[in-house]
Amino acid sequence: MANHECVQLVPIFSELEADQLDTIEKIVRHHHYQAGETLFSAADALDQLMIVANGQVKVYQLAANGREQLLYLLQTGDIDGEAALFENQQRTSFAEALVPTDVCSIRREDFQALMQQYPSISIKVLNVFGKRLTQLERQTTSTATESVEARLANYLTETAAALKTDTFKLPIKKKDLATFLGTTPETISRKLTLFEQQGLITQQAGKVIKINDADQLLLTE
Amino acid sequence: MANHECVQLVPIFSELEADQLDTIEKIVRHHHYQAGETLFSAADALDQLMIVANGQVKVYQLAANGREQLLYLLQTGDIDGEAALFENQQRTSFAEALVPTDVCSIRREDFQALMQQYPSISIKVLNVFGKRLTQLERQTTSTATESVEARLANYLTETAAALKTDTFKLPIKKKDLATFLGTTPETISRKLTLFEQQGLITQQAGKVIKINDADQLLLTE
DNA sequence: TTAAAAACTTGACCGGCATCAAGAAATAAA
DNA sequence: TTTATTTCTTGATGCCGGTCAAGTTTTTAA
């Protein structure tokens, strides 16, 4: 089955040899989730490293008032669960498959043994942490200091830049995008309409968006 | 000089022997900053691990619109700069001493050599990352989904809990606290007055606050 | 101790955006 | 396909909290 090769999808194992990857494959567990299914909840013990072998997973938190905050959108090859692997913590987030998803997991002790054996893994994990920290710092600053309009404009230009195209389909539904940007679906609709009226974007059928003027979009305050 | 012992203040070196600490001391550089002085700016190259030997440092970002976001308040023994030590990135944050501060720094290549030599350091750094990620995830969720009132109430109860006392002095000025909580000094003043009118806290001279009803405070929406 | 500067408080105003509601569109199921 | 369900859009309304301003208190400097 294809997802048995999930280990080689993951950048943190990229410097290992084929036979070493085989060793890891043997300690990996495979799971399949349907769209909408919960992978883990905030109360769960945190003793697994999770690898998305195929699919899409949203990781989110719930605030005290019950509102949802989308933190990460995991794609094939992304990992999660490392954050607190090194402390005796509980999870603080929820994870839910957005589409049918294959996941591999490695138990905490197995992963720690791997890090002992292959020091390059630690370095890679530190890289992942660093990137994620940098991203979260930006997100915090952005939600706390910029308008919804500016955050949405940023999201659109960044997504276009990442995909290297000016026409793309929004990868998630507006409700999820809203919780990611710290706003509501209604406001996203309104702002997209506004951008279109300003000629900055064009909305096409099926959540497809074409960016007409990325420079001007970025000037949104 | 006392700050020559900064290395032993730092948890990431806590499992090393005395003679190993001596080795590290030799590669460490010492700096002193006055209150208000800038330690580094966002444009600076990121090639130093920074250790606060004595004092207090605020780490913040500037949004596109010029507004400030306080990310971390570093105390004696805290480190910073590791986030992107493992990628060839530039800094994205600014750091400024809030009081007269002694800082030790270790160059990137020296630190990486240390991690090679003493694997326990990598594990410790992973710990620091994990804690910081968890904290930032909470901060993002909080600023994006909860009211200013709730965020301030949380901050007060958490600070009290951390200091294990119900009467404490706000460690930073309101302007900085405002950028930390994603609000303004005026709103903080108003909300503190509100809490006092509700009997939840008592404000005393010199930014000293006494928490009268932490349970009720946490119920603030 | 006194003077100057910085930080804080309170008031008035108002705009951005959340909320509620109802209809339209798109997606999924039958 | 047709139907049912979910998602999206648009309008009306209200409030949280930001901004500007002026006075007060605290802190710093002389």
From TrEMBL, chains A, B:
GO terms for molecular function: DNA binding; DNA-binding transcription factor activity. Residues 146-215 form the HTH crp-type domain. SUPFAM superfamilies: cAMP-binding domain-like, Winged helix' DNA-binding domain. It comes from the Bacteria. Residues 12-132 form the Cyclic nucleotide-binding domain. Keywords: DNA-binding, Transcription, Transcription regulation. The keyword Transcription applies. InterPro entries: cNMP-bd_dom, cNMP-bd_dom_sf, Env_Response_Regulators, HTH_CRP, RmlC-like_jellyroll, WH-like_DNA-bd_sf, WH_DNA-bd_sf. GO terms for cellular component: cytosol. The keyword DNA-binding applies. PANTHER family: CRP FAMILY TRANSCRIPTIONAL REGULATORY PROTEIN, REGULATORY PROTEIN YEIL. This is Crp/Fnr family transcriptional regulator. It comes from Lactiplantibacillus fabifermentans T30PCM01.
